[in-house]
Every structure is written in C-alpha cells, then in structure tokens.
Design brief:
The protein has 507 residues and is of the alpha/beta class. The protein is built from 19 helices and 17 strands. It has a five-stranded mixed sheet. Strands 6-10-5-11 form a four-stranded mixed sheet.
Length: 507
Amino acid sequence: MRMKGRSRRGLASMVVTLMLAGMLAACSSNGNGPSASGESPQADGNGKPNPVTLKILFPGDPPANWDEVKKEMENRLADSLNVKLNVVFIPWSDVQQKRQVALSSAEDYDLIWDNNPVQNIAAGLYEPLDERIEKFGPDIKANRSTELMEANKVNGSLYAVPLEVNFIRPWTFVIRKDIREKLGVQPIKSYQELIDFMYLVKEKAPDITPYIPNGTEHIGLRLAGMLDPKANLAAVLNYPGLYTKGNDGKVYNIFDDMDPLILQNFEQNHKLYQDGVLAKDALTLKNTEFAKGKAAVSTFNDFGINLSTRTALEKSVPGASAEAFSLYDPSLKLSSTYKAGNFIAVPVVSKNKDRAVQFLNWLNRKENYDLLAYGIEGKNWEDAGEGLYKPISENPYAGVPFAWGWNPKLDRIDASLPEEVIALNKWQRDSSNFTKDILAGFTFDPSPVANEIANLNNAGTEFYNPIVMGLAEPNEGLAVFKEKAYDNVKKVQAEYQKQLDEFLGRA
C-alpha cells in the first residue's frame, strides 16, 4: 500500500530544510550547532561525542523516584553517548493535543511517543529510520521479531520504533479482593460471576461504585469479541461503527451488518447502567478511580495489576487489596496482526537524529532497560530469575518503558503476581501461540477520507460512546447514530476495504 501523504512529506521536508538552513548562520559558531544535514556534529576533534540534550515528549506523570533514576541514566550515558535528558511529561488528558501542537509548530523535540503515528507519518512529520537503525540500532532490531518490525512499517519504511511486548493487546478486569472476601464471594471464574459480584456490591456496599471501566475500548467490541473468541471480532482502528470478524479480510459496519455479539454486549452494558451498577458518569471516569478506592471493579491494559495501581490503592485505602480476572485463555489460538500499541518516533525537525537513535539502542541493552523499567537494582527491585523481577515495596519505582523502550526480549514480569497471571504474560509474548491475522502488515492511509473520519469521530463521541457505555438504549441510540454518521461510516468503510483489497491482491 502506498500512502498519498508522500507528496505532503516531500513538502514538509523541504520546509524543514529551509528552516534549518536559515538557522545555520546563527549556530555555525557554536560547536553544538547543526550541520548542513540538520544533524548536530557527533564528536569533537578527539573523537569524543559532543554533549547533547535530547528533548523527549512522554505521556502521563513522572513515576516515583524518577529524578533518581534519570540521574543514574545520565551518569551512565556520560561515559558513552554523552547525552542528557530533557523528558517532558504531559498528562494523558492533554498528550494528544499537545503532541500535535508540538509537531505542527516544529518544536525542538528529538523523540516523541505516539500511540497512532500513521497520520503524522502521512503528514511528513516523522523521519524514516531504516538507515539509522541499520547503522546505529543493532539492539533495537535484535530485541524485536521480524514480524513486529515488518508489520509496523508504512510504505515499506519504518518511521517509528514499535514498542510492544505482546502479540495481542491484553486487558483485564481488576477487582477489589478485600471487598470480595468481605462479602463471602469465591474467586471470580466467569464473566457472569463478575456481574453477580458487581450487583452484590451495589446491594451490600453502597458507598462504593460497583463498576468504573476505563472507557469504551475495554467494554465495547473487545468485550463483545471475548464473549466468543472464535468469532475474531475487532474494531477497525478507532473508527466508531466499523469492525472486522472471522479473519475474512472484509470490513463490516454495525448498521448494515450488526453482529449479535455486539448487540448483546450493548444491551448488557445498558442494563448495568440502568441498574446502577455501571457508574452514572462512566463516560468521563477512568480506571484511575479504582486506585483511589472508588470502584469495586475496573479494567486495565494488563493481565495482572500493575505496581503503580497496587501502590496507589494501598495508600488510598489502608488494608485494601486487588486481584485480576481475565477472559483470555492460553488454550485459545487467537490471531495477531503484530501491530504495536505504542511507538517512539524522531521528528523531522530534530537536530540530533543520529544521537536519538543511538540513545534508543542504548535503552535496548539489558542493564539499561532494567534501569529504565524497574529502577535501581537493590533499591527499587531485585532479580527474581530469568525474565522476572521483584519490586521492593518499601521503595517502589513504577517504570514506564512502554513509551520508549518496550520489547519482549528484555521486559521482565513481576514475580509477585499470581502464577496464573505470570503464565498469561508468558503466553502472550510467544508468537507460536498465535496465528497470523490476514491484516498483518496492512497499514491504512486515512488521508483520502480525512474529513469523513473527523466527522465520524465527532459523531462517535457524541452518539456512539453513550451506546457502548450503556447510557443509551441500544436500538434508540443506534438509530440516532445512524442518522448522524451513516454516510461517513460507509465512505470510510469503502476506502478501508479498497486499500485492504489492494494489500491482499484482490483489487
């Protein structure tokens, strides 16, 4: 598939080149100024790397003990790459908007986290990395499978390093274990048992909200698909109303081809909402409410309970504890597209492109990855055997490798998690446990229907999300959503199918 954004990329690159050329005169007397290629000189006359500060855009808030870990990283870097780090943390609520502002204004970032880089690639805002990774990134390549690297290319080139440890995107229900035990409920083993528990919480513990899921992603088509995993239901990117099923290479919409599993899920969520089990303000609340002790059940993108959530919950509610319940089953032979959920990219305006890739490669070495992900060994964590670690509860560091280093070969699993959770995590990281999805390697170019996608997303926020979250009666809500969005759904569906057919050689 070829992206129509190539012409825009050429224009963007030309503009950037002219901008940098105009800066050369002002910077030429400075040993750290950019060269004619827009790249800062790599070394002084003695072969020592010139000092460089890499500016990195990062989602969320700094983890506890971040300053200490950052200092240790810079100490190690001083004797090798001579790099200092200017990591700009942006709250999740603002990160998408501020990332686009930074890119459109050519702000001087050297590395940018992106969870969906396709549009920025099409706009020519990210640098192709193949040659630099070949030259400077042997560890980047060594720690990622060929399937992962190839499936995340666009137009045959890699514009952003895929950050992923899983061959599927995990998610789980997280439950207040202390409340379950107090109510005399046995460990949850099925979705129906989970629903029964939430109703019991409403009856017996009215001071806590039974269920606050983390948005539409977790309780929409993903949950519907898990009601029958063999159906292979999946949302089409984040386009409301479009989905795939059966690994048949076709795109469906919920107006002309409503799958019974999807409708059943909408109806179940609406009942939970009507009965006061699902939070009344579920459209705005997220899983952070669970860590505050305000929900008995929530959803997370993990198989277990991450360290930051456990730590925050225990601080908010002394004596509280949590456990996970997953609908995934290792006996299932699910399909995988090998698409990453996170990426790290180098903006075309960066003056330190080589050093940025060298730094990413540095992060992909075991001792450095351990520091980034788990903190200082002996202070924040202990080695618990091959592929495992044990956090030190008195001084925890909830690392954030997902946004700049994540890879399946170096990432460790928390040894304090239950055995079944460790087993699920190991299962999801082994490619032999999955079959190749027909969409593997396909990247949709949204530019031909950019206006329709914008209109569809706006309509989705207003009319589709309330259906998924149970606020609207499904049939009534779908009628309104169809009136507002049908034409846009059909146009996006047709373009997606056209490109997919071209990719599959069926055009």
